[in-house]
């Protein structure tokens, strides 16, 4: 019986306007993938950035220590390399440098082959008045649902 792993960044859609989505692989050690399969990871405060050599890394991703890992355990918060095609990396690098967009992770999941993948998105930060409008629309929808229910 295979457990479905789905680690989400719930604040991403509220904080950012999402533009393009990409599915990337992650370079992990043995204890890191075991912790992810247990669902003990968080991407709520993480973001992606490019290194000097043009590689994409996820920063501030929390993966809890594996309970049976003894002295071979990993660091909980470290930079982890993301795997994308060269064409996708160039496109993302150009967008981040020229237009000032950010790359944020949306979801960590295990694909059918058993590999850990991360869904990243090119995003633009929302202004506070945009966030207030989203909250207002959500509250209006809740009010309408209550009236329909009565």
Summarize the structure.
The protein has 150 residues and is α+β, with helices and mostly antiparallel strands. The chain has helices at residues 12-15, 30-37, 86-99, 128-149; strands at 6-8, 16-26, 41-42, 47-50, 56-59, 62-63, 80-83, 102-110, 116-125. The chain is globular, with a radius of gyration of 18 Å.
Structurally, the number of domains stands at: 1
Uncertain residue ranges = none
Strand order of the largest sheet: 1-8-9-2-7-5-4
Order of helices and strands: EHEHEEEEEHEEH
Which structural class do the helices and strands define? Answer: alpha+beta
Sheet with the most strands, sense and barrel status? 7 strands, antiparallel
Spatial extent as radius of gyration: 18 Å
* Number of helical regions: 4
Corresponding CATH superfamily = Small protein B
Content of β-strand: 25-35%
Helical proportion, percent range = 25-40%
Mean pLDDT: 89
What is the CATH architecture term? Beta Barrel
């Amino acid at each position: 019986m295979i457990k479905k792993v789905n680690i989400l960044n719930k604040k991403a859609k509220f904080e950012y306007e999402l533009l393009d989505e990409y599915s990337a692989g992650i370079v992990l050690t043995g204890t890191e993938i075991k912790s992810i399969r247990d669902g003990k990871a968080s991407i709520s405060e993480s973001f992606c950035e490019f290194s000097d050599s043009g590689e994409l890394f996820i920063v501030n991703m929390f993966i809890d220590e594996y309970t049976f890992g003894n002295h071979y355990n990993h660091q909980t918060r470290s930079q982890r390399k993301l795997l994308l095609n060269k064409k996708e990396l160039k496109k993302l690098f150009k967008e981040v440098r020229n237009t000032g967009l950010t790359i944020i992770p949306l979801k960590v999941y295990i694909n059918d082959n058993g590999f850990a993948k991360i869904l990243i998105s090119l995003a633009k930060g929302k202004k506070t008045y945009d966030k207030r409008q989203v909250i207002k629309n959500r509250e209006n929808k809740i009010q309408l649902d209550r009236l329909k229910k009565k």
